[in-house]
Amino acid sequence: MFIHGTRTQTPIDKLDQAIEYLKKQLVPRIRSAPGYVGAVLLADRKTGSCIEITYWETAKALSASEHVATKNVPGTHIVKVEKYEIVILDRDQAPKPGELVHAYTISGDPEKVDVVSSLCATRFCLSQGQSRGIGRP
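^ that's the sequence the OP posted. Answer follows.
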């Protein structure tokens, strides 16, 4: 699976308007795109910083979605557009709106991505029943 992430900056007084636009305009428009799996919006309501993420079945579907997924939301400024392959996905339940997340950016040698993902899986993705890990309080 692959993601298309758009980092944006929105004036705090326009944030709710931008969220509504994404919910009612952008997400319904991309739902019909081939290979679309889902979307999530991460927002820091104190700063107006957001990360819009769409999920795609394949790299080909991700590439084909470029014209739809990178739309500027009215009132926002696109800071950076990023594309990634999901190499670890561990959660014991689907996320719900209003929950908080920690987002980490790791940079390094692409040849070592398997080593890093394995390390992250063993250090951060704890087995069910343990109290801390990705997606767990």
